[in-house]
Design brief:
Layout (H helix, E strand, L loop, with lengths): L2 E4 L4 H11 L5 E4 L16 H16 L9 E11 L5 E2 L13 H11 L9 E11 L5 E12 L15 E3 L4 E2 L5 H7 L1 H22 L1
Parallel strand pairs: 1-2, 1-3
Antiparallel strand pairs: 3-4, 3-5, 5-6, 6-7, 7-8
Helix pairs in contact: 1-5, 4-5
């Protein structure tokens, strides 16, 4: 394993991914940086299914390029589940109210839907499923979560997406107000990537022993 291709075009995600996987000693490329242009239809019913769909389709495209024959392709599907709203927006988090709608508008809309709801019923979590497609055709998928509540206002500049309304009572702030290093330590994506890193390290150790 000398390269990892992450199936995303989200620059914010790539910053987090590189921070968390930096000690693997492997070049980490985004899908765009690898020159892979594919419009994957995420039609799974769960975060795990969507992550696997992305990973396997991008891996299929990568295998057609000689320089990526041995690359591992990773993909994630992540989103916000709000218990009071029957776990909406869930797997549709990125598409909620339309993909081109700004998160300022999406976040305010969710706050409006929770107007007057007490904190005990505002429980929510971020979910991140991360899938790996390996050169031998096998796949793995893991899940990370971060529990919190939906706050009462938009706050914080360090995160993206729904971070400014995701409040962590034990830290007294939203996930968008956390320092990047602390967010990576606590986040759903951080947990998922650490689980996946363990799988990658174990696989590499097994190959080294062969």
């Amino acid at each position: 394993m000398n390269k990892i291709i992450f199936a995303t075009g989200n620059a914010h995600k790539m910053i987090e991914i590189r921070m968390i996987l930096k000690d693997l000693g492997v070049e980490i490329l985004s899908q765009a940086e690898a020159g892979i242009h594919a419009d994957v239809v995420e039609n799974g019913a769960t975060f795990e299914e969507n992550a696997l769909i992305k990973a396997t389709e991008i891996a299929e495209a990568a295998r057609k390029m000689p320089e990526y024959q041995d690359a591992v392709v990773l993909a994630d599907d992540s989103g916000l589940e709000i218990d009071y709203l029957n776990k909406e927006p869930g797997i549709y988090s990125a598409r909620y109210m339309g993909e081109d709608t700004s998160y300022d508008i999406k976040n305010q809309a969710l706050l409006d839907r929770l107007e007057g709801v007490e904190d005990e019923k505002r429980t929510a979590r971020f979910v991140c499923a991360i899938a790996a497609a390996f050169p031998d055709g096998s796949t793995e998928v893991v899940r990370g979560t971060m529990e919190g509540i939906i706050g009462h206002e938009i706050a914080g500049e360090n995160g993206f997406g729904y971070d400014p309304i995701f409040y962590l009572p034990e830290y007294g702030c939203t996930s968008a107000q956390l320092a990047p290093e602390k967010k990576n330590e606590l986040s759903h994506r951080g947990e998922g990537l650490r689980k996946m890193r363990k799988i990658l390290e174990d696989r590499q150790s097994g190959l080294d022993r062969q």
